[in-house]
Input
Amino acid sequence: MSIWPILQDDQLSPRAAAVIADIRATRKTDFINNFWRVLANDPALLERTWASLKEVMAPGALDPLVKEMLYVAVSIANGCEYCIRSHTTAARAKGMSEEQLGELLAVVGMASETNRLATGLQVPVDHAFLPGETV
Amino acid sequence: MSIWPILQDDQLSPRAAAVIADIRATRKTDFINNFWRVLANDPALLERTWASLKEVMAPGALDPLVKEMLYVAVSIANGCEYCIRSHTTAARAKGMSEEQLGELLAVVGMASETNRLATGLQVPVDHAFLPGETV
Amino acid sequence: MSIWPILQDDQLSPRAAAVIADIRATRKTDFINNFWRVLANDPALLERTWASLKEVMAPGALDPLVKEMLYVAVSIANGCEYCIRSHTTAARAKGMSEEQLGELLAVVGMASETNRLATGLQVPVDHAFLPGETV
Amino acid sequence: MSIWPILQDDQLSPRAAAVIADIRATRKTDFINNFWRVLANDPALLERTWASLKEVMAPGALDPLVKEMLYVAVSIANGCEYCIRSHTTAARAKGMSEEQLGELLAVVGMASETNRLATGLQVPVDHAFLPGETV
Amino acid sequence: MSIWPILQDDQLSPRAAAVIADIRATRKTDFINNFWRVLANDPALLERTWASLKEVMAPGALDPLVKEMLYVAVSIANGCEYCIRSHTTAARAKGMSEEQLGELLAVVGMASETNRLATGLQVPVDHAFLPGETV
Amino acid sequence: MSIWPILQDDQLSPRAAAVIADIRATRKTDFINNFWRVLANDPALLERTWASLKEVMAPGALDPLVKEMLYVAVSIANGCEYCIRSHTTAARAKGMSEEQLGELLAVVGMASETNRLATGLQVPVDHAFLPGETV
Output
């Protein structure tokens, strides 16, 4: 019961079908999750979102598993169930152990706690943390 | 101009002084940043927060740099300037390159964008992402 | 299974019933959605919330459809499923096309992405954006 | 004192300079605000962010002023000062009156209030608000 | 450098002046803080906001100090510096001790931590926590 | 269908079992809610989280009911359904009346509204609200 229907392959416009085909080719799997099938109702939005995600999540200076874990952490902070579940699945597929997930959760929880303490107390930034300064 | 004063070493209660001493010993530096000096006004809060942070950020299944980067990502999502600046500094000290920071920011931005799209469209979670199910 | 029961018409206090009657008269429909039926358990809260909403959402310098779209955008950013669904329905009833919804979602996603980039990089505000200054 | 330096024109890499040139050409002004000058430290991030923004904010089914107002509303909900100030400036440049800004703020405030009430009371979504159902 | 100017008494419209006079009478002080002086640029928004705040913060089933502390807690979670500082000041004026503030901060931090853990792990709600059920 | 399984008593590691036993002893009830049964998959996380919660929520300068209400308020602002339901149940068990819950919700809603207005208008903090200054 998403806001837009979950499109099946034979319901895709040519522009959306081309994006879906690229997702399959890039990920080397036939499986297309609901996020893309719903976005496919707006081919321009689908195309742009996939192009950005493909570029951002590609291997680079950070390895793909670290990127997936960062994605999970942000999704928790933003409160998005869909993204938590899909990117936790992706992180596990890329090798995240349950022990690593436990530590990820501990950091997310701890950061959220100290974020609120620093904000609640309005702690001023130390000179040592400002660019161009040294301890 | 924090809500509580930034305490100097000679203003610490014995209980707070013991925590500050442990921070110095653990981090092998004399520098104590404002966060701890402000928390020191409530020794119980200081003691518990430091004990938790020390445990959570210690090396484990995730390496300390990954933990710092997760901390930065969550702090951005939660909008805490102090924490963004202090943990970006810490991540750089642990070896984060500017190229890695750029990728971290790209993931945080991308996740925030797709978090809103998935939430805005109320995309239902795929069976494949639920525990106990397989693609 | 809301925190308070969903009150039916014959369960309303006189004060709540008067508000519900005004909602029906203002909206020219008999249908009362769950939000108001749950708020009705606290007649003062119901009365104040409705009075404010009625004033804020009335036609003014912004047309009612733009107001509904702003409501949807904020509800996505705040992560409120109920509000996303109810105000998307309202916006469609006021004429929002699916193409417009797609653009709304694109802006919400894009803003969330750049919000995080600007916050993560702590970009200082340009003088040109401060009141009283000109480019 | 942003996390990355604010690059001047003569400090840009060729790839970043090309993006900056396109921003100037698209906006028909020489002025480049700090957001882009800071992003320019990571040319790939700059290029992708600008390409997306240019596409998303172009005239379409929604007029550019409505898009700017949606941007402001989301930036307020996400708590990003830079984005609030830059997009309020942009909205005014596109014709937003102070009266319209007042109504925008009223809707953002009201939505945030009722978002919390609906979440706090865990109000279930009405059948009438689910796709495929009718009142 | 707020988005709208901080109006002085002699710059108020008659409608805004009446609201400001009521704030002074209700609070039994001549001091009017910037929030109201900025809102005064939109007399309808000022009038409605003050009427609601006056009603919500009045003594009732919760005492005014508890209400101020709830206000501070929410303002921290929402990341609003102005509101954190103004309502912390108000809570102190109503008798909040520094020890109570420390406990308030500890609860806000702890709740934020466990909120993220419960969300990150997608813990299902126990039957015992649903209305109409008993342990 | 949480991310980690809901462990039954006979599935607990010795370290987790000891924590669960302490929860039962502290709360004087056999009932253990899902949050702890899911956290039990990571005994270190369970142990630390419980130790902190036990300390933070103990009677102190604030009475336990006020602490529970602050917990509910923060959980609403952070959008955590599990925490809203569990801590509302706990607050009722400690004596919160429905009238008090209504006022709590009114404050949370009002604070969220004015938080957005103050942020949206970028109202500068009054000198009177800064430490060391007086009205």
Notes: Chain F has a mean pLDDT of 96. Helices of chain F lie at 14-27, 34-39, 43-57, 64-78, 81-93, 98-121.
